[in-house]
Amino acid sequence: MNRMSVSSLTALASSGRILRAAGAGVILAVTGMPAVAQEAPDAGRGDWSFVLGGGALVRPSYEGSDKFSVSPLPFVSINWRDRVFLEMGRGLGVNVVRTDALRLGVSVGLAPGRDEDDEDHLRGLGDIDAAARGHVFGSYSFGMVQLGLDVSKDFGGSEGVLVRPDVSVKVPLSESWTLSSSVSATWANDDYMQSFFGVSSSQSRKSGLERYDAGAGFKSVDFRVGLNWAISESWFATANVGVGVLLGDAADSPITESEVQPSVGLAVGYRF
User: Mostly located where (predicted)?
Assistant: First the structure.
């Protein structure tokens, strides 16, 4: 990680539409959409654990859209001694503090951008580049309940800051089935909100949308329910259903066509 600077990550993230599509999968854990890779059973086999898999995700074409797209959802999770990890949610990171109950860590991942060609409603707004995203995160677990907090900063793209508190619950239904649910809220700063929900004078002339200033505040609240099936010691399948609701300036933006943002994810994976 120390050999890869933030600037090099930003250059990589800005390389085109393929990375923007990949970033959409990476950001799922942060935005409250189905994070299927995180439902994988713990590998727990020596110092290293690996999870590989793939599936499909149905979600709005962009945040605020009333139209849907289906995207492939490959995922990978690599973990060394529960200390160093590479995963779809947060990227490459380190658990600095790790006890049975408390986790504190840092990571660098990928933040997706937005392409004005993704939908007619976005024409004239210009593209938002994908970017490197740094995270500082923590969680505290007691019983089946976990309280979490993720603070992230984009280096490139919107240059935005996101703060996401969440509460999640995991309920074992049997030896093979586990039910999980979570609720989270996301606060965004001025840079993020103006990039994704604001309309400048220039954008207004090109797009036909009214000029709009989007300010800092809570942009969304997200609910998710997931079901994990441990098919065997190595194979598992998972399904997630999520509903996000845009709030405040995000909900009132002329870019937003629907305040309600549902999503469904299905995946199969193998751990070794």
Answer: membrane
Q: What is the pLDDT of residues 92-144, one digit of tens each?
A: 999 999 999 999 999 999 999 999 999 999 999 999 999 999 999 999 999 99
The arithmetic mean of pLDDT across residues 8-25, rounded, is: 40
Determine the Cα–Cα distance for residues 193 and 174; give it in Å rounded to an integer. Answer: 43
Q: How many structural domains does the chain have?
A: 1
Instruction: Judge whether 37 lies within some domain.
Output: no
Q: Model pTM? A: 0.84
Query: Residue 102: its pLDDT value, please?
Result: 98
Q: Is residue 150 part of a domain?
A: yes
Which CATH number characterizes residue 127's domain?
Answer: 2.40.160.40
Domain of 95, in residue numbers: 48-271
Average pLDDT, the chain: 87
